[in-house]
Amino acid sequence: MEDQIPLYTRAKDTADALRKELPEELRQPKVAIICGSGLGGLQYTINEGVRFEKSYSEIQNWARSTGKFSRHPSR
User: Fold this and answer.
1) Which of 24, 59, 67, 71 is buried most deeply by CB count within 10 Å?
2) Rounded distance between C-alpha atoms, residue 71 and residue 19, angstroms
């Protein structure tokens, strides 16, 4: 059913839902960065101001990983 909703509509709905959760000073961003777990520390190198974090699994319309992975591939 979700595939029948146009991609733009799903993206806009997701952005609108996230915007409602943001602190007031972040609701009109000029830039947003979505980082996977490997780049999570990037946020601390850009700006020491207000931040917003949310797990991928909590984001409306966001794709879910179907792969299995290990934090330590060599083990």
Assistant:
1) 59
2) 31
What 8-state DSSP symbol labels residue 28?
S
Locate tokens 């830039």: which residue? Answer: 31
Would the CA dihedral through 48, 50, 43, 26 be positive or negative? negative
Cα–Cα–Cα angle for 42, 67, 14, rounded to 5 degrees: 60
- Indicate yes or no: pTM above 0.90: no
For residue 55, the SS3 value is coil
- For 33-52, write each residue's pLDDT tens digit: 777 767 767 777 876 778 78
